[in-house]
């Protein structure tokens, strides 16, 4: 089938590539103009394949289609228009031109969440089911007949990024290819959209993303995750605008113990803890925010909001300096309008967008032996110097700046001094049991007491389970491959659990 692909983004690029793999002829690609010297991934891929690419800044003027634009489109003889993701308004003269019409991808289960920011609103409304729709384009706003729908469960801590990456992107690409196949085989349905249950919400913008504190914790959590990462849910506190990211309702075992963060309009002050920022709804339930973006754009762990000593800069080895230069080259490729990438170059202030974050993470993976960064890491270290420091810490096996504090009990045995931890290990930290409860651990060889060991209480078990659940679901360890986990374990230094008594006794 002769297809015109109209749209943009990595999603559009992937749909385009899959359609070509299925044997369809893409007669033309219509995408957005270059921005800051950067071509959209869809247009860039099509140009590399020798497919005609058109970058019209607009298709209409004063409400009417531009005749020369329509003529260039019609000259291609497309039998079907495929719009995987399109931010431009396409006139009906183009939509209706092919004999098979036009199909559009929409990231919600229509008729729910018509309009832009559909993924955001799926989360903001706390929907338990999400998904996407492929529908036949008409002259309405996401009101055309349904061709195909697929749904998924929305997890309690899903964000726009996690829902998109887990389901809407990969399954959406497959869905678009399946829809084209159904059309080619003459089996594509046209099911009128029901009006019952229809909703329409506008584009989420920064000025409309302010947090309303007079609502339950779950609603506040949904608002924060529904605006994560764009545009970002924010509030005024400590004399500046703070934007919150990475929210969770998984707070079992957490205690609101730390430094208060007064928030105007909030039910009660937030609390900066070791786990992050604890917030409260008007139902007194808690939610936890793990990252805060300051007004100057810098993203920090919420636990560090009330200041922390400047981290000491790592001194790079020759090999690491070589890696830094390779990564600098990646920054230059992604930021072509920047004449020189130096330590202070800011990734986002230099014109990078969310699609560039994905590209940078992929380039780092190729350059650094499969190292898996999170998109969030780029937001946490936006300047080139900070990014290299973060990257090197990860390459060295972690980003901890100090070793975990361990209170050892020492015992001399057979000319060795054994050093034994005696506290509970919860959430990456050794801590005493609630109330300081302990019990004696016995040497089985002679029945003597070795030392007092912390005796976990029910509340300690709850904290440990909550910390383990969070690490399993959100931690980096479970997301990287077995090969990379093995590589990091191999590089880890042995624990100094024993040392020779210098006296020889």
TrEMBL record:
One Gene Ontology cellular component term attached to this UniProt record is: cytosol
The EC category is oxidoreductase
**Gene Ontology BP terms:** 10-formyltetrahydrofolate catabolic process; one-carbon metabolic process
Q: Does the keyword Acyltransferase apply?
A: no
Q: Which residues form the Carrier domain?
A: 318-395
One Pfam family for this entry, by name? PP-binding
GO MF, any single term: methionyl-tRNA formyltransferase activity
* Presence of keyword Aminoacyl-tRNA synthetase: no
Alphabetized InterPro entries for the sequence: ACP-like_sf, Ald_DH/histidinol_DH, Ald_DH_N, Aldehyde_DH_dom, Formyl_trans_C, Formyl_trans_C_sf, Formyl_transf_N, Formyl_transf_N_sf
Question: Which CDD domains does this entry report, sorted A to Z?
Answer: FDH_Hydrolase_C, FMT_core_FDH_N
The alphabetical list of record keywords is: One-carbon metabolism
PROSITE patterns with a match to the protein in the record: CARRIER (PS50075), GART (PS00373)
UniProt lists the family membership as follows: In the N-terminal section; belongs to the GART family. In the C-terminal section; belongs to the aldehyde dehydrogenase family. ALDH1L subfamily.
What is the name listed in the Swiss-Prot or TrEMBL entry for this protein? formyltetrahydrofolate dehydrogenase
Q: What organism is recorded for this protein?
A: Bos mutus grunniens
Name of the coding gene: ALDH1L1
């Amino acid at each position: 089938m002769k297809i015109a692909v109209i749209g943009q983004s990595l999603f559009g690029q992937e749909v385009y590539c899959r359609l070509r793999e299925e044997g369809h002829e893409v007669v033309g690609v219509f995408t957005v103009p270059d921005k800051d010297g950067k071509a959209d991934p869809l247009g860039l891929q099509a140009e590399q394949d020798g497919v005609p690419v058109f970058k019209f800044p607009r298709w209409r003027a004063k409400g009417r289609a531009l005749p020369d634009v329509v003529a260039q489109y019609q000259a291609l003889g497309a039998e079907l228009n495929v719009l995987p993701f399109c931010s431009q308004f396409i006139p009906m003269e183009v939509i209706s031109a092919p004999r098979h019409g036009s199909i559009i991808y929409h990231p919600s289960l229509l008729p729910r969440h018509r309009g832009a920011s559909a993924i955001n609103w799926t989360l903001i409304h706390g929907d338990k089911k999400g998904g996407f729709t492929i529908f036949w384009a008409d002259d309405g706003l996401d009101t055309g007949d349904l061709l195909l729908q697929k749904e998924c469960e929305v997890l309690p801590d899903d964000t726009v990024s996690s829902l998109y990456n887990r389901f809407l992107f990969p399954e959406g690409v497959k869905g678009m290819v399946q829809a084209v196949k159904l059309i080619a085989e003459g089996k594509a349905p046209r099911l009128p959209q029901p009006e019952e249950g229809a909703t329409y919400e506008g584009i989420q913008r920064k000025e409309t993303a302010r947090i309303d504190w007079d609502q339950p914790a779950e609603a506040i959590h949904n608002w924060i995750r529904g605006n994560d990462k764009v545009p970002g849910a924010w509030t005024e506190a400590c004399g500046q605008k703070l934007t919150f990211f990475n929210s969770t309702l998984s707070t079992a075992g957490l205690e609101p113990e730390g430094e208060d963060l007064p928030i105007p309009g909030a039910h009660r002050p937030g609390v900066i803890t070791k786990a992050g920022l604890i917030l409260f709804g008007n139902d007194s339930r808690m939610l936890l925010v793990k990252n805060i973006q300051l007004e100057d754009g810098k993203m920090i762990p919420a636990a560090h909001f009330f200041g922390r000593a400047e981290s000491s800069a790592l001194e790079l080895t020759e090999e690491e300096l070589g890696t830094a230069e390779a990564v600098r080259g990646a920054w230059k490729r992604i930021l072509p309008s920047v004449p020189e990438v130096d330590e202070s170059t800011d990734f986002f202030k230099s014109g990078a967008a969310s699609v560039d974050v994905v590209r940078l993470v992929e380039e780092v993976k190729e350059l650094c032996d499969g190292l898996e960064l999170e998109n969030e890491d780029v937001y946490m270290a936006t300047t080139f110097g900070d990014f290299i420091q973060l990257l090197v810490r990860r390459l060295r096996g972690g980003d901890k700046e100090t070793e975990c504090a361990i209170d050892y009990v020492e015992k001399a045995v057979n000319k060795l001094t054994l050093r034994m931890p005696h506290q509970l290990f919860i959430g990456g930290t050794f801590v005493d049991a609630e109330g300081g409860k302990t019990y004696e651990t016995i040497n089985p060889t002679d029945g003597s007491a070795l030392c007092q060991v912390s005796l976990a209480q029910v509340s300690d078990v709850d904290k440990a389970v909550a910390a383990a659940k969070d690490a399993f679901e959100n931690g980096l360890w479970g997301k990287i491959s077995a090969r990379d986990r093995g590589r990091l374990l191999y590089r880890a230094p042995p624990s100094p659990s024993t040392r020779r008594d210098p006296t020889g006794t």
